[in-house]
Hints:
Number of helices: 7
Helix content: 25-40%
Distance between the termini: 34 Å
Order of helices and strands: EHEEHHEEHHEHEHEE
Mean pLDDT: 81
Oligomer: single chain
Structural class: alpha+beta
Shape: globular
Low-confidence stretches: 54-74
Amino acid sequence: MTYEYEGKTEKEAIELAASELNLERDQFDVEILETQKNSLFKKGYVKIRVHTLDDDDDDKGSYKKDFSENHTRIVADPLPQGEFEQKLVEFISSIVEKMGYDIKVSVSYREEKKIGVRLESSHSSILIGRKGKNLDALQLLVNIYAGRLGHEEVRVILDTENYRIRREETLVRLAYTTADKVRSSHKSILLEPMNPFERRLIHTTLNDIPDVDTKSEGEGVYKQVRVLYKGIR
């Protein structure tokens, strides 16, 4: 979800957003829309757009919840259950086949408001794309389609060749390696552009390291995470 707020300063606008949305600062991203400096005839202000991180962004708590012991992931019948799942499978199959690639689509897990879909193809590397961007783009289309079917609340996660798991392991190692470099040099490091889930993973991985902090920078879906040294307070 997105919201817009104004304040005399960027800090004031952000604090207002956090207060009204009842969120911590690391639970939303901020995009600066407009800045007006003080002048003789006009008072200065900053207008921001807030992107909340309930499903798609750097919500550390949400990521931890996904992998907590109390979280229920139901691995069941891989065949689509019900009209909604059947239409999802048909939609994905249609898109990939129109791209000219073979595809077998099945359900890998079911959770409350989330469904995992497995793609099997001899062209998996192409479906994944560089840094998973093709897979992310396809996943975005599928989630838009799910919304049009009246299931906006359901998050559809696509995976192939266990790419998501392998990517998570790579990013966790990257996070710790980067943190060590930052702690040694006391200089910040800006990581490669990442999608919201990947940024959330970096934030969460380093959240408990007391002398290191993280923040997202940039605009759009693929932002970068900066890892900073803050010292032990």
